[in-house]
Amino acid sequence: MGEYYADIASCDELGSWSVYNSGDQGTEFFSSLSSDSLPKGVVGYTSTIIDERRGKAVTTQRIFLRFIRNGQLGQMWISVTNPSKSPADLRPQDLIDAALKQAGATLDSTALDGA
């Protein structure tokens, strides 16, 4: 999980960059999600890609977490995407409990200790 934390922090420093995908060109704006808005041990970000030429935007919020199931550690990510410049009303952190319940797992809140 420390790697996710470090990667998000390095992207957060950049803030925005140009993106090219299948001939489309746009700008991606990136920011990490505040640790105050996430359970302990969870990291995440918001990414908004704007294609000025087409007048379209897509905003994705994604979180990464580590879980414990049957004594084993695992990792999962949860994303919510909205076809606009704003995040969706439903946040990925709102889905953590349901995802862990479906996986028969519990959140490992120590995942970022020492990060």
Structure characterization notes:
The protein is an alpha+beta fold and 115 residues long. Strands 1, 2, 3, 4, 5 and 6 form a six-stranded antiparallel β-sheet that branches. It is elongated and about 50 Å long. The protein has one domain. The model has no long low-confidence stretch (mean pLDDT 88). The chain has two helices and six strands. A hairpin with a 2-residue loop joins strand 1 and strand 2.
**Principal-axis shape:** elongated
**Structural class given helices, strands, pairing?**
alpha+beta
Uncertain spans, ≥5 residues at pLDDT below 50?
none
Question: How much beta, percentage-wise?
Answer: 35-45%
Radius of gyration: 15 Å
Number of helical segments with 4 or more residues: 2
| C-alpha termini separation | 8 Å
| Overall structural domain count | 1
Give the % helix.
10-25%
| Structure summary, number of beta strands | 6
Average predicted local confidence, pLDDT: 88
Indicate the multimeric state: single chain
